[in-house]
Fold:
Amino acid sequence: MLVTGTDTDVGKTIVTAAITAAAQAAGLRVCVIKPGQTGTADGASDIDTVTRLAAPANTRTLASYPDPLAPLAAARVAGLEPLELYTAVDAVREEAEKHDLVLVEGAGGLLVPMGLRPSGEPWTVADLAVSLGAPAVVVSRAGLGTLNHTALTLEALERRAVPAGVVLGAWPAEPELVHWANLTELVPNMVGALPDGAGTMEQGVFQRSAPGWLTPALYGVLDDWRTWADEVS
Ligand SMILES: Nc1ncnc2c1ncn2[C@@H]1O[C@H](COP(=O)(O)OP(=O)(O)OP(=O)(O)O)[C@@H](O)[C@H]1O
Ligand SMILES: [Mg+2]
Structure:
């Protein structure tokens, strides 16, 4: 399963941790893969964050680059080898043999250049989903601007026949009219929503809470958005 998003900083890493926690609570062995980690010169890696929140059985980062850029650009700027599509495909297949669920967190949004194919053409997380025949989770913002970005991302996935559901990365503690209006619009495609602040929770609390943020499609127990809305409002 690929975890992508409408943009960078939408909460892909926290959502990846939540799916990990819910799947592990359901008894699954989970491996989390970050194909291209950029910006390693300043700050923690996404795998560190997922490990802190959810402690997956196994994790892998396939390529790391110092600059906070898209992975292919970051490889070029640093004079490092770009990640090859089939290196990522092989890594996911290898871990899929040893785990019940492999979660792959992209970088930025769906069509960000991740690396190069043998032909020299760039590849994206959408290409990885197609190559693997894997479904995608689109992490979206809750606020203004999200309807267009979410619709564009879902359309790009649909065009490639990649099944996808939407998870809100951070639902605000005090939602405003725009958040409720967006929720109404997005609910038909939604498979989860994380509360704002989830990323700062202590591991035990995060692991116990995660199933309540996700529908059974993502190994959670959330089955009624009306109940969810009553609880968060
Ligand atoms: N539900 C949440 N609760 C608290 N903080 C959050 C939540 N979602 C995201 N954040 C914070 O927002 C920032 C971006 O989140 P995150 O790192 O998950 O985004 P991302 O989509 O994985 O970004 P990238 O493209 O860099 O991988 C982080 O500082 C994170 O802690
Ligand atoms: Mg991330």
Summary: The chain has one domain: 9-142+164-232. Residues 9-142+164-232 form a domain with the Rossmann fold fold (CATH 3.40.50.300). The chain has a mean pLDDT of 96. The first strand starts at residue 2 and ends at 5.
